[in-house]
Amino acid sequence: MIDPNLTVTEAGLLPFERRRKDRVRVCIPVRIIGQGIVDVVSQDGVCTNISESGIAFETNVDLYVGEIVDLQFRQKDASHFHFKVRLLYKMGNRYGAYFASCSPHPTGVHNGLQAAHLS
């Protein structure tokens, strides 16, 4: 298991040019869905900035650098869409990640992580 406080380089992951694309500052609620030790874990957070290649968000849940999680956004019409992201860094309760999937997936497509219940 990768220590959640490691940087990308310390974790032995390939470096990624995080600032290659322009970032847009935002304040958007997001649900973080990941695989816990025994079960799927779902936690609220706030997306703080986003670009074509990556995203930053804040949450109180402990995640692991290198882990792939789903970030789920709720649209105004109450439908959801989500992106798979790989966590690049952790600074306190702030995480940076790059998109592991090329496009958003509707909630109706199920896999292990999407089976989590949402409140």
The N- and C-terminal alpha carbons lie at a distance of: 29 Å
For this structure, the CATH topology is: Thrombin, subunit H
How are the strands of the biggest sheet laid out side by side? 1-2-3-6-5-4
Enumerate the spans where pLDDT stays under 50 for 5 or more consecutive residues: 13-18, 108-119
Global outline: globular
Mean pLDDT across residues: 76
Strand content: over 45%
Number of strands: 7
Number of helices: 0
> What is the highest CATH level, the class?
Mainly Beta
User: In terms of structural class, how would the helical and strand content be classed?
Assistant: mainly beta
What is the H/E order? Answer: EEEEEEE
Question: What share of the residues lie within helices?
Answer: under 10%
Number of domains: 1
The rounded Rg comes to 14 Å
Major beta sheet summary: 6 strands, antiparallel, barrel
CATH-wise, what's the superfamily?
predicted glycosyltransferase like domains
CATH architectural arrangement: Beta Barrel
Protein model, in words:
By secondary structure, the chain is an all-beta fold. It is 0% helix and 46% strand. It has strands at 24-35, 40-50, 54-58, 68-74, 80-91, 94-99, 105-106. The radius of gyration is 14 Å and the shape is globular.
